[in-house]
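Q&A FORM
Asked by: J.P.
Topic: structure of Pyridoxine 5'-phosphate synthase

PROVIDED:
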Amino acid sequence: MTKLSVNINKIATLRNSRGGNNPDLVKTALDCERFGAQGITVHPRPDERHIRYQDVFDLKQVIATEFNIEGNCQEQKFVDLVLANKPAQVTLVPDALGQITSNHGWDTVRHQEYLKDIVATFKEAGIRVSLFVDPDPRMVEAAATTGTDRVELYTEAYATGYLKNREAAVAPYAEAARAAQQAGLGLNAGHDLDLHNLKYFSQHIPGLLEVSIGHALICDALYLGLENTIQMYLRQLA
Ligand SMILES: CC(=O)[C@@H](O)[C@H](O)COP(=O)(O)O
Ligand SMILES: NCC(=O)COP(=O)(O)O
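REPLIED BY: S.T.
REPLY: Here is the structure written out as tokens.
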């Protein structure tokens, strides 16, 4: 079964746009769980433009499903935040400062030694580690030798390609998924997955353990309601 982890960054974006606490991020996370989400994902960025560091402490107190914190481990503040909260999973993303959103995976060959150290730091604290990578079997194989538990395939290229030629778009992901299986790595995926492209992806990717979805899901919820939307996403994964 593929788990759905709802990324609530965009709820924090909306809250921050006015100050105050509307919408209430913690309540939204609890409601997502009540509506069927099997995990909650947040991606605190150094400028705290959506998720604030304090949000992570607040969410950790209440989340009963799987808590996944994504972010740039080259920021010491991020490492300290994750170690202080001990989520079920940390997803390491090689973001540059000021990026609008994540736009590439790790070069696991070039950063092998650095990744070995940081993966060990989180694993010693009992936190499952996932590395955000492009769908390239070489990057997946080199991820395995860092000691990471999982990789998360960066699905932006799939989402864009799906509209033109879905068979061609999914092919590199299926190959990367096979490489992950052969290397003994668990497999996650995320970025720009939506109600149109999710089912085809999950049907063609062997061993997909978890997808994290935020932007499209929250946009859909504006029209369809949060409970209904989460149920619709879950049906794509059934
Ligand atoms: C790691 C990843 O794929 C991103 O989608 C991220 O979690 C979203 O971050 P933003 O909400 O800041 O665009
Ligand atoms: N890891 C991907 C994620 O959490 C959500 O990405 P998106 O659905 O907001 O593009």
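FOLLOW-UP: The chain has eleven helices and eight strands.
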